[in-house]
From TrEMBL:
Name used for this protein in its record: Retrotransposon gag domain-containing protein
Upper taxonomic lineage: Eukaryota, Viridiplantae, Streptophyta, Embryophyta, Tracheophyta
Ranges for region Disordered: 1-21
Start and end residues of each Retrotransposon gag domain: 67-127
InterPro entries assigned: Retrotrans_gag_dom
């Protein structure tokens, strides 16, 4: 009789396993250091390597900017600190997304490079024009 009592008690109750909250441990990602030298190729190499590492380790969007700025050294760290301060002074929101950081870095490193290249070309052109121009004695 006791077994039929236990069976009838258990029929109305179904055990449901409550799912455990799984916290996925975030993988440590070591990014190459970035020194912020005025060399477009060094910057682009760094950016491509960082993109590869982010994709390989499936880095979440909210971790990308903090990880990237941890890799800044020397001039790059100074540039970042200055940029953050200027944004606060102008009440601009902080940079939170990788694409926004990349845009700021590209403005700094690629436009500077092309500006310098254009100035060099202009100077060479002026020198050639000066050499070919007849001089008055």
């Amino acid at each position: 009789m006791e077994s039929s009592f236990n069976e009838s008690m258990n029929q109305g109750y179904h055990y449901q396993h409550t799912p455990r909250k799984t916290t996925s441990r975030e993988v440590k990602v070591d990014l190459p250091q970035f020194f912020g030298k005025d060399d477009m190729e060094l910057y682009l190499d760094w950016e491509m390597k960082v993109e590869q590492l982010f994709a390989c380790h499936k880095v979440s969007e909210e971790r990308k900017v903090p990880l990237a700025i941890l890799s800044f050294q020397g001039h790059a760290m100074y540039w970042w600190t200055t940029l953050e301060r200027e944004r606060r002074l102008h009440n601009d929101p902080p940079i939170q997304y990788w694409n926004d950081l990349k845009s700021a870095l590209r403005r700094r490193h690629i436009l500077t490079y092309y500006g310098r290249e254009l100035m060099n070309k202009l100077q060479r052109l002026q020198q050639r024009m000066w050499k070919t121009r007849p001089h008055k004695s």
